[in-house]
Amino acid sequence: MDKTNAQQEYERRLHADMIDSVDEELEMEIDDERMDSLIREAADAATTEFDEDRRAYFRELLRLQGELVKLQDWVVAKKLKVVVLFEGRDAAGKGGVIKRITQRLNPRVCRVAALPAPSEREHSQWYFQRYVQHLPAGGEIVLFDRSWYNRAGVERVMGFCSPEELEEFFRSVPEFEKMLIRSGTILVKYWFSITDDEQHRRFLMRIHDPLKQWKLSPMDMESRRRWEDYTKAKEEMLERTHISEAPWWVVEAVDKKKARLNCIHHLLTQVPYGEIEHESVALPARIHNPDYIRHPTPPEMIVPQVY
């Protein structure tokens, strides 16, 4: 690919990434009724293939999110304990999938555990101890945005653990996960896979996007330099921790939107669920007290109406 074609491809991907950011806002704002209306309007208009792909994506995402709501109701009703691990390279799209899963769910039922670097005290604990406190109770779903597999990835590559600690992790983690499953926990493990070139493009787009530069930490930049070391670590991790009780599932994530849909669709197949019947909700009549007079809000307390 010559320089001109490479630049054109970069600009195309940059545009697509900007559109994806806009779409994320639309996903947060659009409810099902308004979305259906927009889809009907768009279907009547002359559109490009790109527009059609976006409409198809929105339609399927909303359908899958509707199923996630049913799954949430089932988990609560049956007191299930669900743990989902999201692992993968930096900029592989884990966060985007987690956002779409949690977007329309109750945060008291489905929560995200994204742990910071361990403290000095946590360094002296049993390795799994700080993760255990985030595990779900009955009726809860916990999504780990990176998990105990940090030891087999970043800690190993960056030299934050010793070879002995790494080997002990590989010995312990299958038993730890089997113990979780025996306790009634449903455990699903995802690895998000992208190519070397794709990670390079995504890092460049983050560098040139002021709204996303915060996503690039010094650790991320170092991970880019050590691509091959991370590849070797990932290969051994998958080989040694892919057990029948808790297998790894690899999500091809070069195409962000397809990765989101594929992962959510697959997750729905991993937790058998049905529809929970809910009693119809009736809005109660408002109580009116003729003696009540609402006091005015002091002007100095009001947020200025800039917009």
Summarize the structure.
52% of the residues lie in helices and 10% in strands. The protein is of the alpha/beta class and 307 residues long.
Describe it for me?
With 307 residues, the protein is of the alpha/beta class. 52% of the residues lie in helices and 10% in strands. It has twelve helices and five strands. Helix 2 (32-43) runs antiparallel to helix 3, helix 3 runs parallel beside helix 12 and helix 4 crosses helix 12. It is globular and about 75 Å long.
- Overall form: globular
Major β-sheet, in short?
Answer: 5 strands, parallel
What structural category arises from helix and sheet content?
alpha/beta
Mean residue pLDDT: 90
Q: Helix amount, in percent?
A: 40-55%
Strand content: 5-15%
Number of strands: 5
Oligomer: single chain
Poorly predicted spans: none
Give me the side-by-side strand order of the main sheet. 2-3-1-4-5
Cα distance spanning the termini: 47 Å
Give, in order, the helices and strands.
HHHEHEHHEHHEHHHEH
Helix count from the secondary structure assignment: 12
- Rg calculated over all Cα atoms: 23 Å
SSE layout:
Elements: H1 3-29, H2 32-43, H3 49-78, E1 81-88, H4 94-102, E2 110-113, H5 120-123, H6 129-132, E3 140-145, H7 154-157, H8 163-182, E4 185-193, H9 196-208, H10 218-225, H11 227-241, E5 248-252, H12 256-270
Parallel strand pairs: 1-3, 1-4, 2-3, 4-5
Helix pairs in contact: 2-3, 3-12, 4-12
